[in-house]
Amino acid sequence: MSHSQTNALNPAVHKADFSHPGYQAMHRWFGQSYANYLILPRVQLQSMPEEWQQRFASCLREFTAAFAGSEQARSYQVRAIDAEGHYVKDPVPHYDGGRARLPINTTGHE
After folding, report:
1. Most buried of 45, 77, 91, 110, CB within 10 angstroms?
2. What is the rounded CA–CA span in Å between residue 98 and residue 38?
3. How many Cβ atoms are within 10 Å of 91's Cβ, its own excluded?
């Protein structure tokens, strides 16, 4: 099947060429995890400096446009769990309509 052909079970999925630099950054960021999704708390995102938020929002717009028209679930549910897999209250506060901010750790940045 060519990259442009699709089927109902695997729409346009192809194997990444990991020798190509464009495929390495995200793969390396996820490391050895089996994570299929990236979950980021909104309150932490909106606590970042404005310049960072603008760059991130621009990347999200680009990402959304790249997959416009792709079949996706309407929404997802995310629940916090502890080390034993039990549901727990999320320790990250609610974003409070954009008013909540958290302190940023300014040490240890790469």
Report:
1. 45
2. 21
3. 7
HEC states along the chain? CCCCCCCCCCCCCCCCCCCCHHHHHHHHHHCCCCCCCCCCCHHHHCCCCHHHHHHHHHHHHHHHHHCCCCCCCCCCCCCCECCCCCECCCCCCCCHHHCCCCCCCCCCCC
Q: What is the chain's length? A: 110
Task: Give me 106's structure tokens.
Answer: 């300014």
12 within 8 A of 3, measured Cβ to Cβ = yes
Both structure tokens of 94: 């609610």
Token representation of residue 71: 């079949």
- Encode pLDDT of 42-88 as tens digits: 999 999 999 999 999 999 999 999 999 999 898 999 999 999 999 99
Q: Which positions ≥6 away from 56 have C-beta within 8 Å?
A: 45, 48
